[in-house]
Amino acid sequence: MLTVHKMHFSIFLLLWGWVLCTECRAHRQGKEIHEVYKKGSRPQRQRRETHVEAHKQGSPILKRSPDITKSPVTKSEQLLRIDDHDFSMRPGFGGPAIPVGVDVQVESLDSISEAVTPTSFLQDFTMTLYLRHYWKDERLSFPSTNNQSMTFDGRLVKKIWVPDMFFVHSKRSFIHDTTTDNVMLRVQPDGKVLYSLRVTVTAMCNMDFSRFPLDTQTCSLEIESYAYTEDDLMLYWKNGNDSLKTDERISLSQFLIQEFHTTAKLAFYSSTGWYNRLYINFTLRRHIFFFLLQTYFPATLMVMLSWVSFWIDRRAVPARVPLGITTVLTMSTIITGVNASMPRVSYIKAVDIYLWVSFVFVFLSVLEYAAVNYLTTVQERKERKLRDKLPCACSLPQPRPMMMDGSYNDGDVSELGHYVSENGDKQDRMMVQLALGSERGSSRRKNQRYVSMRIDTHAIDKYSRIIFPGAYILFNLIYWSIFS
Fold it and tell me: What domains does the chain contain, in order, with CATH numbers?
């Protein structure tokens, strides 16, 4: 038992000796630091004092400044005093209208639609843009020592007042939400607010196709407040026409973008009143080269192809008739194909004028051969009747006794009545000589009168070779001078 007490007493002495040694060592180090602090310069003393404080705290690393976002007192909602105000009302309610400036940056003009589908009549455009609003709400002012703004995402937008803008005559629109809602809110210490969002909108565009495809279209995107009249909200372009910015890379396959410009007007609704409305206007000019290749050039070739029949023999019916029918059907196909992709408007378009005039030229070439064939048939019938009336003249092998026109003295007339020149070429004209007997006073005395009749069956073809091309060239000159 005595041995156990001795062991406990020895352990107690060892622990007491270790504590005394530790305190003596700490007291000695404190004296040394105090002496060095007295002897050193002021910056050195400051550094050593910092080192001493760090040593006293038991860590060689200085503490960082506190993060105010982690403090429950400095939350953004409390800093902006959102819970202290009713943001369902506009800023300055009961006073003058709040001015809201707007500027727009057009990111892309995606498509221009003018086609007719089985379910809809499309005359619209699709545009992606950055829409920015500027106003001042003193309820959102906050104290700041460095005058820096605070930026928030779309979560705070749902808790404060923002202008209720909408797109007039829009068919579809949405705010982009990849990877999060493309909405930004920036608040200045004095309460000035910038509200920006990225929107894609499809809006209606009233197009005039009277000069299609040589037309120029003007479309507009209209922005307006839905609830607040001009007495509550004054909507304006922040920097005038400079408020609209566009990307230089914007291009369309079918149109050339000529210009963008802004305007502002008042819109009146009989039930609610007057509203400020902003317009984004842009002018588009259609590229003509596509239609030259697909419409105008084929139609011109068909008209020129129909003229080939003027150089084909009038007796070649199997050659001239199919040629005329083929050109007429081809023109009908071109007209149908163009109108199938166009809106069913009630007025005549420029392309309709060109195609239908070309169709008339092709159709007239078919009628021209019908006229030639008919006159040829009539002429042959008259020739048979004349030969039946001249049995003596027709039986003569040599028609020398007949009275001939002076320009055909050197030729012969065949038994069929066709004029044959010395070189054997058949001419277009025929000379038919008629001997008519008449009795004057008595049956014994007869006088014969010789009448020459000239018939030219190729005159229509000859004139058509000049009239048709000349008239079509004149039409093209007038057409392109008016519509180009």
Answer: 76-286 (2.70.170.10), 291-381+467-483 (1.20.58.390)
Q: Whole-angstrom Cα distance, residue 23 to residue 9?
A: 22
Angle at CA 259, nearest 5°, toward 257 and 260? 110
State the residue for tokens 């009168």: 449
**In the predicted structure, residue 418 carries a pLDDT above the cut 60:** no
171, 166, 168, 175: which is closest to 202 by C-alpha? 171
* Cβ-contact 398, 438 below 8 angstroms: no
Print burial letters for 169-193: b (CB count within 10 Å at least 16), e (below 16).
Answer: ebeeeeeeeeeeebbbbebbbebbb
Crossing angle of helices 317-340 and 297-306, in 10° steps, is 160
Comparing 294 with 69, which gets the higher pLDDT? 294
CA distance 218 to 281: 7
**Cβ atoms of 446 and 439 closer than 8 Å:** yes
Q: How far apart, in whole angstroms, are the C-alpha atoms of residue 419 and residue 407?
A: 12
| 459: CB partners within 8 A, 6+ apart | none
pLDDT tens by residue, 92-107 = 888 899 999 999 999 9
Omega before 298 within 30 of 0, i.e. cis:
no
pTM of the model: 0.66
Least Cα distance to 390 among 433, 429, 420 occurs for: 433
CA distance 163 to 157: 11
